[in-house]
Specification:
Layout lengths: L21 E2 L19 E3 L6 E3 L3 E2 L4 E9 L5 E9 H13 L5 H6 L9 E8 L3 H15 L7 H4 L1 H5 L13 H10 L6 H32 L6 H14 L7 E6 L6 H8 L18 E6 L6 E7 L2 H20 L1 H4 L9 H14 L8 H7 L10 E6 L2 H12 L13 E8 L9 E5 L8 H13 E9 L8 H9 L1 H4 L6 E7 L6 H8 L3 H4 L8 H36 L10 E5 L2 H8 L13 H36 L6 H60 L9 H10 L3 E3 L5 E3 H21 L8 H12 L2 H7 L3 H51 L7 H55 L13 H14 L5
Parallel strand pairs: 1-4, 8-13, 8-14, 9-12, 14-15, 15-16
Antiparallel strand pairs: 2-3, 5-6, 5-7, 9-13, 10-11, 10-12, 17-18
Helix pairs in contact: 7-8, 7-22, 7-30, 8-22, 9-21, 10-12, 22-28, 22-30, 23-25, 23-26, 23-29, 24-28, 24-29, 25-28, 26-28, 28-29
Pfam families: Dynamin_N (PF00350), GIY-YIG (PF01541)
InterPro entries: Dynamin_N (IPR045063), GIY-YIG_endonuc (IPR000305), GIY-YIG_endonuc_sf (IPR035901), Nuclear_GTPase_SLIP-GC (IPR053082), P-loop_NTPase (IPR027417)
GO molecular function, one term: GTPase activity
């Protein structure tokens, strides 16, 4: 039997005082929820205390804003929940969660062995008005029924139990032994705060979709009576789009790290798969972009492979053979031991050719290789999808597309752009979350290099993954911050940098105790009656925790301020821009497999990272749903306020309000223009100063950062220079280091303007940033106080609500545009310099032979010297031009779009929109949604 969807549901029911108290049936034929509801009862019983309680209202699954109970027939245990929407919709979410095997409290319980959804009983116990009152009532019943120590709320309220926010009813706090037993009873992946926020978000979304659906049905009924006008049809079409809208946003998390840092093992642990991605070994394993995300459609494991084109591979092959040819010509190479640095390009070329053509490919010419191999594994459309029943099968079959460590097998990873892996039933991955394993290896294919930069700009969070034993001694993190992550400062979605220290289980307690002069007493492990094995476990645990704390403190002290400047600027005011986690993927996997482990589950750090992923998902989901609820609320408010448009008193009042708000709008635009003019002036001053420095030091900066090798002689560096020229001034080596000649030349300009730029474009939302000024405009144009003063004047009040929601929609549009434009503005300097030198880069790729290094170096130096008088001034002008375009666009959009919204709400409601349906009930539904989301609309 089909489940009733939002469009087929009746309007939301309210308790009927004429009906007897208790749990009733909703009346909808085929209601799935009613099959699980405890109908006909006017009381319920605690499964823990056996005490009975009366239900004093008539409640059904369609009663909104209720506290409810879920019971398990088999255990039996109870769960106390709340929903601002109806129980019917909340049950629909539970049903979907159980079906998808999501790792959430209720789904986890009813997906246990011997359990099914048929064991679930659900029923409302009280309707409560107002979100805060609803939350208070839920807390009361959690305490009263003791569902946090004997029920399913234990998982959700574990954190509160640990921090003494929830007390035992009549018994005081549990003993430490009992507390530990309770905490181990069920393992929660996610915190109660995050889980509750996600449920509230889902509630609001369903309620908004239902309200839009009900309004659409009412408009359809009116339009069936005659020929609707164009204005009416446009409004109906807008509601139709909102009815079917499901706002989602893909959230990318990018993982950086050197070979052996533990990125793949970390992803395996987070996704609860043992060997999904290759890890360990002596060689680099993951050699392509690997996206890992949830498969929410089926229970299959799926891999989608994207290949480079035939033309791209032929171009790359030509260059790889050229590298090896240069190596053969370099007689001095044969007379010495090669270093890791100057052997880098040659090794990369050999590995790629051997992977595709075997070792005999190294002895063949370009024409022989192009003609001798066909690749049936690469379809003509350059895309391929593989489907498997298990992760093991998937891992075995995709190895040749992503791995560079299986030397005995033919591999296809050099032909691959990206592999997207879809996993069912992953504890950390919800719909829309994508973990991106970013390869650190260098690439001779400039299209993949561009893809690398583009992928980085999509990431909402960037994780720097490093071995904890090397984290403070290596320069890797500094290089990532100083070179790689400047891309996210110049544009993109990123608003968080997370440092992940791996392999915390690898520890020498004696070394820790000796280095830090700590005794057993300091670690609180001294005991006369401990057996040696238990003592060793306690000692290792204590040392791991101590080293973890030391690492977190030192990393915070070194990198937190850098991260703030990178993401927020000097005046940023966000609290969640930088995090540090210490993890052991190995110990976590042992625990999940039921094997012996010396660390507790929480001490592995993996559950905390899972929680961070879900927090990121929830924060993005809430933002998207808020924008959706705002638009639905505004549209329904507009419909409700349209019926009295011809009243003379109303028209006079509206005209007066229009004039007042128009003046406010013009004043806002004037102030924004003044502010952006100041930024333009400051940028001009800083760029001019930087340009003069860049002009003076350009040859030295080019020599130091790109044109000359870091070792004593020049042997082998011509290959790196040629790769640099082939990619128009940018090259990423196999160890992840980057050489960027364009940025090296423009660096003095960036240094001078970075503070002003990041303050202006920072993601923290300070009042001096553009984002902060847009937020201030949202808060101050139509204030809560203004709406409160008009609340009694129902129609005008709702017109202002409509204007406010249109303003929020405009703000979202402008913030999206700001992210895109920020990247163009920031990169305008280095892109301009790249374009100036581009013809020379192309010429340098044609230089061959023994004197290639000197020839390339001289050509680049000559071009830099020849261009320096105009090159930096032109770069400055390009950046200022892009900023001026942004300034004009912002002012134009705010002025024209808001004027249109004011006219539509207060002046130009068409004559044929004055006989619209009554949407009072839907207005109340949207007010509940906004209340639960703490969204300031009404």
């Amino acid at each position: 039997m089909a489940e009733a969807g939002p469009s087929s549901q009746n309007t939301t029911a309210r308790p009927d005082p004429s009906k007897p108290p208790g749990i009733g049936q909703c009346g909808s034929a085929g209601c799935i929820c009613c099959k699980h509801i405890w109908r006909g009862h006017d009381q319920f019983q605690s499964t823990t205390t056996k005490q009975r309680y009366k239900i004093t209202q008539h409640l059904t699954c369609k009663t909104p804003s209720v506290v409810y109970i879920i019971e398990c027939k088999k255990c039996p245990v109870q769960y106390v929940g709340k929903t601002s929407t109806t129980l019917q919709r909340r049950f629909g979410d539970y049903r979907a969660s159980i079906k998808r095997c999501q790792h959430r409290p209720i789904a986890d319980h009813f997906n246990q062995k011997s359990h099914t959804i048929n064991d679930l009983i659900i029923y409302p116990i009280k309707q409560v008005c107002g979100y805060k009152a609803l939350k208070k009532e839920q807390d009361h019943w959690i305490r009263e029924l003791r569902t946090f120590d004997h029920g399913l709320n234990l998982e959700s309220y574990k954190h509160d139990l640990e921090t003494d926010k929830i007390k035992f009813c009549g018994e005081g706090d549990p003993s430490p032994k009992k507390r530990k037993k309770l905490q181990k009873k069920r393992q929660s992946v996610f915190s109660p705060e995050t889980e509750e926020r996600l449920s509230e978000c889902e509630d609001a979304l369903r309620e908004g979709q239902q309200a839009a659906s009900q309004v659409y049905d009412k408009l359809t009924e009116i339009s069936s009576r005659g020929s609707p006008s164009s204005s009416f049809l446009a409004l109906k079409n807008k509601i139709s789009n909102l009815k079917g809208c499901n706002p989602t946003k893909t959230v990318y998390i990018g993982l950086f790290g050197k070979t052996g840092a533990g990125k793949s093992s970390l992803i395996n642990a987070l996704t609860n798969e043992n060997q999904l991605l290759p890890s360990g070994g002596l060689y680099a394993c993951t050699s392509v972009f690997v996206h890992v995300q949830a498969n929410t459609e089926t229970d299959k494991y799926k891999a989608h492979i994207e290949f480079i084109s035939k033309e791209e591979w032929q171009s790359e092959l030509h260059f790889l053979l050229e590298i090896l040819s240069d190596s053969d010509d370099d007689e001095s190479q044969k007379m010495r031991k090669k270093t890791a640095d100057d052997d880098d390009m040659e090794k990369m070329a050999e590995e790629k050719i051997k992977a595709i053509y075997g070792i005999e490919g190294l002895r063949k010419s370009y024409s022989e290789l192009v003609g001798c191999k066909q690749f049936p594994e690469v379809p003509k459309k350059c895309k391929k999808t593989l489907v498997f029943d298990t992760a093991k099968e998937l891992s075995q079959n995709i190895g040749c597309y992503i791995r560079s460590d299986k030397k005995s097998e033919q591999q296809f990873w050099p032909l691959v752009k990206r592999v997207t892996i879809y996993l069912p039933n992953s504890p950390a991955l919800l719909e829309g979350i994508v973990l991106v394993d970013l390869p650190g290896a260098g690439d001779a294919n400039k299209h993949r290099d561009e893809m690398w930069k583009e992928c980085l700009s999509l990431c909402s969070s960037v994780w720097i993954v490093n071995d904890i034993n090397r984290v403070l001694s290596e320069k890797v993190a500094n290089e990532i911050f100083d070179k790689t992550l400047r891309t996210i400062a110049g544009g993109g979605e990123c608003h968080n940098i997370t440092f992940v220290c791996t392999k915390t289980d690898i520890i020498n307690p004696e070394e820790i105790k000796e280095n830090y002069n700590f005794t057993d007493m300091d670690f609180q492990t001294e005991s006369d009656d401990e057996d040696p094995q238990e003592y060793e476990t306690l000692e290792k645990q204590a040392c791991v925790r101590f080293r973890n704390d030391i690492a977190k403190d030192e990393i915070n002290s070194i990198f937190k301020e850098k991260a703030k400047k990178l993401l927020l600027g000097d005046e940023g005011n966000s609290d969640d821009f930088f995090d540090v986690y210490t993890v052991s993927s190995q110990e976590f996997r042992r625990i999940e497999q039921g094997r012996s482990s010396f660390l507790d589950r929480d001490d592995t750090g993996i559950p905390s990272l899972m929680e961070q992923i879900k927090k990121l998902y929830v924060s993005h989901s809430v933002k998207e749903v808020k924008d959706y609820i705002s638009e639905v609320s505004g549209t329904i408010s507009y419909i409700h306020s349209s019926n009295d448009v011809h009243s003379a008193r109303v028209n006079f009042s509206n005209t007066k309000e229009f004039n007042r708000l128009e003046k406010e709008l013009l004043l806002t635009c004037t102030n924004l223009n003044i502010s952006l003019n100041k930024v333009n002036t400051a940028l001009h001053e800083h760029l001019w100063k930087g340009a003069k420095t860049a002009q003076k030091d350009c040859l030295e900066n080019a020599r130091k950062n790109a044109l000359e090798p870091t070792w004593k002689d020049n042997r082998g560096h011509h290959r790196t220079l040629k790769a640099l020229c082939r990619n128009y001034g940018f090259f990423r080596s196999s160890n992840g280091n980057t050489i960027d000649l364009n940025h090296a030349l423009s660096e003095p300009m960036y240094k001078n303007m970075n503070d002003t730029f990041m303050t202006t474009f920072g993601s923290g939302g300070s009042r001096s940033s553009i984002k902060g000024q847009l937020a201030s405009f949202q808060e101050n144009f139509i204030t809560d106080e203004l709406l409160k003063s008009y609340r009694k004047e129902d129609k005008r009040y709702l017109r202002l609500v409509y204007i406010r929601t249109e303003q929020r929609k405009l703000r979202k549009h402008l913030e999206k545009y700001l992210i895109e434009k920020k990247k163009l503005i920031y990169n305008a300097i280095s892109d301009s310099i790249r374009d100036t030198i581009k013809p020379t880069y192309q010429e340098c790729t044609e230089i061959h032979g023994k004197c290639a290094f000197i020839g390339i170096q001289k050509k680049l130096k000559d071009q830099i010297e020849l261009s320096k008088n105009d090159m930096f001034r032109k770069a400055m002008d390009e950046m200022l031009k892009e900023f001026s375009q942004l300034q004009k666009h912002l002012l134009h959009e705010i002025k024209t779009q808001m004027r249109t919204s004011l006219r539509v709400a207060l002046h130009q409601i068409p004559d044929d929109l004055t006989d619209l349906p009554d949407v009072t009930e839907e207005i109340e539904m949207m007010q509940r949604c906004c209340d639960s989301l703490e969204l300031q609309v009404f």
